[in-house]
Specification:
The protein is α+β, with helices and mostly antiparallel strands. About 25% of the residues lie in helices and about 40% in strands. The two termini are about 30 Å apart.
């Protein structure tokens, strides 16, 4: 049984393979190449040992490019939603890094992101279901 559509859109997906991400401050030519393994319809989390190394704070508006496994790249604007340092209480759940909230995305990019998340969600659901051919006691 599949989860309601609302849960797919709000669920954070923990990815097996990291996805390349390029971020820079709005209008700045200095770009930072990194990756994410935590993605949702509303944002993503970048894991960094020392997030304070990057010149971003809660007022930072970012230009973001995420490259999907099939080679498609989407662009959107994001805002720093939180900075989690290694000693912070939340670091035990997420690790240290920067949470980015999507604040402006066009319909085409949003559809690419939604389709990717729906596919990953379905794959994770299938992986978590027991294989009917491998029940205990089968000969």
């Amino acid at each position: 049984m599949s989860a309601p559509k609302e849960n797919r859109r709000t669920a954070r997906m923990r990815l097996i393979d990291p996805m390349p991400v390029v971020i820079n401050s709005m209008g700045d030519s200095v770009a930072y190449e990194t990756s994410t393994k935590n993605l949702s319809q509303t944002g993503f989390f970048l894991e960094f040992d020392r997030p304070s190394r990057f010149p971003f704070n809660h007022a930072s508006i970012l230009e973001v490019r995420i490259q999907f496994p099939e080679g498609t790249t989407i662009f959107f604007n994001g805002k720093v939603a939180r900075v989690v340092n290694a000693g912070d209480p939340g670091a035990k759940d997420t690790g240290s890094g920067i949470g980015i909230k999507i604040v402006q995305i066009d319909a085409k990019a949003e559809n690419v992101l939604r389709a990717f998340l729906d596919r990953i969600f379905s794959e994770q659901q299938r992986r978590n279901q027991p294989d009917p051919g491998t029940s205990e006691g089968a000969a």
